[in-house]
Amino acid sequence: MTMKNSFKFFRNTGCRYFPCHENIDPESFNCLFCYCPLYPLGDRCGGNFEYVGESKDIKCCSQCTFPHEPTHYDLVVTKLKEIVRRDSESSS
Questions:
Q1: Domain segments of the chain: what residues?
Q2: Which of 4, 65, 72, 80 is least surrounded by Cβ atoms within 10 Å, i.e. has the fewest?
């Protein structure tokens, strides 16, 4: 069976951490963005995160499923473009 837009979805059930978040259905869990590429956006990432630690300066994404939801692929790519744009402007 061929999945429409299959380049937007990848599930690695062989990973020893799969699923790395327990609050999402394993059948629709997208591993494509295993390590969140939106982390550099800080509080503008769009995900469900919190700041933890003594100084509340550590971004904790353990409750976030944003990049793992198949319907968010286009949003993640849009936000990645924001990071690239920001980084290219700061290096000019």
A1: 13-90
A2: 4
